[in-house]
């Protein structure tokens, strides 16, 4: 089970940190990541990180402003989002699978519920 949190309503330029905690059959996963889906658009990959070593994979839209990290002891992944823009408004979903590459392809064993991020201009 993946439990996401941390979304909210912020103004452009602000920061948010999303969290996603994994519980249950965590032995079967080696990486976690984030996707987002804006209204009327398809779900898109944002970033992923593996447990060990901490290999990261970012979508071009996330590079430079978003940072993904993980706390292995808590089975939790974080997405630090800085300099948020209105176009970052979306429902953000966390996901888990065996590698950052399979996650980037959208092939994920587990999906969490979404958390809404709204950025006002």
Task: Give the averaged pLDDT, no decimals.
Answer: 94
Shape verdict = globular
Beta-strand residue fraction: over 45%
Gap between N and C termini: 34 Å
Biggest sheet overview: 7 strands, mixed
Q: Total number of helical segments? A: 1
Secondary-structure class: mainly beta
CA-based gyration radius: 13 Å
Low-confidence stretches: none
Helix content: under 10%
* Helix and strand run: EEEEEEEEEHEE
Total number of strands: 11
Could you explain the architecture of this structure?
By secondary structure, this protein is mainly beta. It has one helix at residues 100-104; strands spanning 2-5, 8-11, 16-22, 31-37, 44-50, 56-58, 66-71, 76-81, 90-97, 110-111, 115-120. The strands form two sheets. Strands 2, 4, 5, 6, 9, 10 and 11 form a seven-stranded mixed beta sheet that branches.
List keywords for this structure.
121 residues, single chain, mainly beta
């Amino acid at each position: 089970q993946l439990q996401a949190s941390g979304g909210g309503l912020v103004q452009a330029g602000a920061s948010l940190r999303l969290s996603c905690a994994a519980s249950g059959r965590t032995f079967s996963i080696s990486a976690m990541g984030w996707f987002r889906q804006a209204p009327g658009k398809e779900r898109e990959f944002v970033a992923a990180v593996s447990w060990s070593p901490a290999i990261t994979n970012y979508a071009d839209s996330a590079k430079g402003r978003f940072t993904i990290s993980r706390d292995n002891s808590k089975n939790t992944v974080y997405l630090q989002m800085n300099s948020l823009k209105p176009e970052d408004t979306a429902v953000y979903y966390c996901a888990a699978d065996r590698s950052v590459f399979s996650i980037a392809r959208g092939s994920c064993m587990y999906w969490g519920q979404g958390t809404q991020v709204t950025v006002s201009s």
